[in-house]
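Example 9 (inverse folding). The structure is encoded as follows.
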């Protein structure tokens, strides 16, 4: 297999190699992560491009390879066929590592959520996108979440990753940073659908404050100009204090 063919195939696999943390050997003929290894070859006799896959044990040792996919490749100079083979190999590897339902963009990378409204309202995906814009360090956590679950489990993701950010924000009580975040929360709450509104006040804000009086006061002050958001937060905190089932969400 010549270098141009190899490069064309690897172009199609670049996103999944990065996302799934595959590491290459010295001549880039074999890649492995903690779970599987794969290699690409050209069977000239059969005129096929081959994707072979093997399991990797807990000690990092690669098991026996077996063919996972093959692609007819009669003309070694036809790079479009190599590109098609790479796309097919990408789908095969995606299934192998459990990414069947994940959203992948045309570069083979996990698709990030869109900030755009769905109709006239922000949905959960748009809210997530806005939070990732504020906290770009969480983009890798988002990608890992999508790889693990196949879609955005928004309650789990916001509790695990967004709530701690808001906790830190309220603890620091830095006015400049508060003014970066709370206008976004107000905009998304005011212009969001019912699910988004529940997530903003019921998961993110309530989850960050809970029984902490200092955080509560900081949050109320930060929302002094946002009456709808402030009122909703006040009401949800009253429910949190009285409703044991609701409190259990944060245990």
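The amino acid assigned to each position is listed next.
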């Amino acid at each position: 297999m010549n270098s141009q063919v190899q490069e064309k195939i690897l172009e199609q696999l670049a996103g999944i190699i990065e996302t799934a943390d595959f590491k290459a050997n010295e001549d880039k003929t074999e890649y492995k992560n903690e779970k599987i290894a794969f290699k690409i070859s050209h069977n000239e006799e059969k005129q096929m491009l081959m994707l072979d896959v093997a399991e990797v044990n807990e000690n990092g040792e690669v098991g026996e390879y077996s063919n996972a996919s093959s692609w007819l490749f009669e003309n070694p100079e036809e790079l479009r066929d190599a590109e098609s083979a790479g796309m097919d190999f990408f789908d095969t590897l995606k299934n192998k590592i459990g990414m069947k339902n994940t959203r992948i963009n045309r570069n083979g990378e996990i698709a990030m959520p869109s900030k755009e409204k769905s109709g006239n309202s922000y949905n959960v995906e748009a809210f997530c996108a806005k939070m990732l814009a504020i906290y770009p360090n969480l983009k890798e956590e988002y990608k890992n979440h999508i790889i693990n679950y196949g879609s955005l489990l928004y309650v789990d993701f916001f509790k695990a990753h967004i709530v701690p950010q808001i906790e830190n924000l309220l603890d620091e009580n830095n006015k400049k940073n508060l003014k970066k975040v709370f206008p976004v929360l107000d905009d998304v709450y005011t212009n969001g659908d019912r699910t988004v509104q529940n997530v903003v006040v019921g998961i993110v804000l309530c989850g960050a404050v809970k029984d902490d009086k200092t955080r509560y006061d900081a949050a109320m002050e930060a929302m002094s100009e946002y009456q709808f958001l402030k009122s909703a937060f006040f009401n949800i905190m009253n429910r949190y204090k009285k409703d044991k089932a609701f409190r259990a969400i944060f245990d």
